[in-house]
Specification:
This protein is α+β, with helices and mostly antiparallel strands. 16% of the residues lie in helices and 31% in strands. The protein has five helices and eleven strands, in the order βββαββββββββαααα. Strands 4, 5, 9, 10 and 11 form a five-stranded antiparallel sheet that branches. A four-stranded antiparallel sheet has the order 1-2-3-8.
């Protein structure tokens, strides 16, 4: 799903997949001076939850002294970027994101023009084709926060492998299980297979 909304010199572009919603922000020239970043509030209409998204970058003046992997609300420490991605989104969910540029100084933030954008993430299983993305190297920081930086998946066990798979291995095995006998064939363009679980082919 793709959506673009502009209001009073503030523009938000959103692209939603199954597990990620990617944002691009733009400010008219007159809106840029003094902008410290963007806060993002997410309302999950599927699970009835609402909260500000969090980040790891803080202002020196209001730094709470985060421990490694700690996070802070974007309401107090806005995202200092013109792009951001929500990696905590879930498939087949209806979200409302409220994006607000923040101005002033870190100790006294002031809200600019707010943009609300409604997003529906894609379902994992849909129609003829389904697309799955496992978690790779880009998720290394999230892995370290969740399971520990010094713990390999083999040390953690099934929870780590399930988190890294993010449904890919399970969906692949389910697809293979649809073969009823030796008359079924599988054709694929495969870059690399290393996981022993694929030895069923």
């Amino acid at each position: 799903m793709r959506k673009r909304i502009s209001r009073q010199g503030v523009t938000v572009n959103a692209i939603a997949g199954t597990h990620v919603v990617f944002f691009g922000f733009d400010l008219a020239t007159a809106k840029r001076k003094g902008c410290l970043g963007f806060s993002i509030h997410r309302t999950d209409n599927t699970e009835n939850e609402a909260y500000f998204l969090e980040g790891m970058k803080t202002f020196e003046e209001t730094d709470p002294g985060l421990a490694p992997g700690g996070k802070v609300s974007s309401a107090k420490h806005p995202f200092q970027s013109f792009q951001w991605a929500d990696f905590t989104a879930k498939p087949a969910h209806d979200y409302v994101y409220r994006v607000v540029p923040l101005y002033g100084v870190p100790t006294a933030l002031k809200q600019g023009t707010a943009i609300e954008i409604e997003i529906a993430t894609e379902p994992e299983i849909s129609g003829t084709h389904s697309v799955f993305f496992n978690r790779g190297a880009i998720s290394s920081q999230a892995y370290a926060i969740r399971f520990g930086a010094d713990r390999s998946p083999s040390d953690v066990g099934p929870p780590a492998y399930e988190w890294l798979s993010r449904g890919l291995l399970e969906a692949f095995k389910g697809f293979l299980a649809r073969a009823e006998d030796s008359s079924f064939e599988l054709f694929g363009a495969i870059y690399e297979f290393q996981w022993p679980g694929f030895g069923v082919i």
